[in-house]
Amino acid sequence: MRKQRLDEGQRGGIFVNLVVLLSIVVSCAALYLVRHPVFRFAAESWVIEDPLDKADALLVLSGDNFYGDRATRAAELFREGKAPVVVASGKRLRPNAGTAELTEHDLVERGVPKEKILRFAHDADSTREEAEALAKLARTKKWRRVIVVTSNYHTRRARYIFGRVFPPDIETRVASARDGDFDPERWWEKRISTKVLMREFAAMVVAMWELRHGSRINEKTQGIVGLGAPIPQSLV
User: Fold this and answer.
1) For labeling, which of 16, 107, 129, 194 is most exposed (least CB within 10 Å)?
2) Are the CB atoms for 164 and 56 separated by under 8 Å?
3) CA 73 to CA 125: how far, in whole Å?
4) What are the angstrom distances between the C-alpha of 144 and each of 83, 172, 226?
C-alpha cells in the first residue's frame, strides 16, 4: 500500500514537472515570437521629442554623425522659424579647429545663413559637461528658452541632463534628429545600432549617478567654455 502511494506520488511529481517544463517552453516560444515588437517598443520609448514652441536658440549638440543628421534637423527647425539663431556646439580637436566648424559647414549647406550661426567650441568630454558649458552661454546671452537638437537615441538622456544642469529660469526642449545608424524600428538588425543603444543605457545610469545631487558649474567647466568665432552683433 505504501509502495503504491509512493509510485503515485512519483507519477504526480513527474506530471507537475512536465507541466512546469511545458509552461516554460511555451513562454519562451511566445517571447521569441514577440521579441521584435518588444525590441521596437523599447527603442521607440527611449526616443522622445518635446512639443516645440518658438525659442531663443537652437543648440546642435556635438558629436553629429557622418551624415550630418543633427544639422539637418536643426536646419529644418530654423526654416520653420523655431529660433532666430543656431548654436553649432563642438569639441575642440586642434587649437583653432574642431567639430563646431564641421557643424557650421553642414548648417550652411542646408540653408542656414552663416550670420545666424553661433559657433561654440568647448573641451567637454561628456553630455553633462557640454550642457554646463552651454548653460553658461545661455545665461550670458540672456536666453529664456532653447531647443536642444540631438540624435534620436540620445534624446532621453539629453533631456534628463539639460533639465538638471540648466538654470530653472531657462526652459529647455529636446528635438529628435533621425540617425542613419540607428533605426528604432529595426535596431537589433545592425550591430552598430545595438552598441549605440546599449551604450546609451549605460550612459544614462552614469548620468543619473553624477547628477543625483544636482549639478554645479565647476572650475573645470568654467575653463572649457569658448567661442570658436566672434559673436555677430545682430545676435547679441
Assistant:
1) 16
2) no
3) 23
4) 12, 9, 21
Determine the pLDDT at residue 227: 42
Domains of the chain, residue spans: 2-33, 49-235
Amino acid, single-letter form, for residue 210: E
CB of 47 within 8 A of CB of 184? yes
**CATH C-level class of 49-235:** alpha beta
CB 140 within 8 A of CB 226: no
Helix axes 155-165, 191-210, angle to 10 degrees: 20
The three cell numbers locating residue 169? 529660469
* Number of CB atoms found within 10 A of residue 69's CB: 21
Q: How far is CA 167 from the centre of its chain?
A: 20
Against a cut of 0.90, is the pTM above it? no
Nearest to 137 by CA among 172, 95, 101, 174: 172
Is pLDDT above 90 for 186? no
3-class DSSP state of 177: strand
